[in-house]
C-alpha cells in the first residue's frame, strides 16, 4: 500500500492469458503443436516452460533453434491458426472478479494497460471475444510485435507507460502469471511486481523469482493498492 512518502500507483500493467483472461492453457497447446509438427520432434516440458510468458514469435524461434525467418514465419502462422481455432471452439473468459477490479481501478484514476507476449493478430480477436474495449474497460494494449524484444526484456512495460503518459517506474505495478512476467517487471525497475496464481505456475515457482507480491488473482490488485470499492 502506498504511504504518504510514496507516489501513488498510476498504472497497472497486466499480462493477458492466465492473468486477466482464462483461456484454459490453449496457447501452450497450440505452441507445442505448431513447433512439433514442423520439427517432427517432441518438446519437453522444461523446454516449453523456458519460453512461457515471452513473445510467441520469440518462443518459436527459441524452440526451433537454428531456423530461417521463413521457417519461423511458417510456424508462427500455423500457431496463430491453431490458437484462434481453439479460441473459437472454447472461448476465453475474464478471470473471475477482474472486470469489477478494472472498474474500481479506473474509478480511482489508475490506468490499466494490457501488455502481452501475443501479437496483434491474436490479441485483437481475443479481446473482442472477451468483450473488452480500449477506452471503456482498459486504457491500452501493447503487443509483442510492437517492441524489439518481449519478456523478460522490460520494453512491453515501458511502451505501456508511454501509451498512457506515466513517466516514473515508481508509479507502476506489473502483474503476470509466469517467471518471465516477473523478470520483466524487475528489469523495468517498477515499484510493485506481482505474481498471480490463476495461470501457468504455482506460488512456490513464482516465489523463486523477483517479486513484491504473490496474489491469488489480479482481481485483488485494488485491495493491494487500497482503492476500496467504486
Quick take:
Helix content is 44%, strand content 13%. By secondary structure, the protein is an alpha/beta fold.
Walk me through what this model shows.
The chain has 230 residues and is α/β, with parallel strands linked by helices. The chain has 2 domains: 11-23 and 93-224, HAD superfamily/HAD-like (Rossmann fold, 3-Layer(aba) Sandwich); 26-89, DNA polymerase, domain 1. The strands form 2 sheets. A 6-stranded parallel β-sheet has the order 5-4-1-6-7-8. Strands 2-3 form a two-stranded antiparallel ribbon. It is built from 10 helices and 8 strands.
Low-confidence stretches: none
How is the largest sheet built, in terms of strand order? 5-4-1-6-7-8
CATH superfamily of the largest domain: HAD superfamily/HAD-like
What's the domain count?
2
The CATH topology of the largest domain is: Rossmann fold
Largest β-sheet summary = 6 strands, parallel
Order of helices and strands: EEHHHHEHEHEHEHEHEH
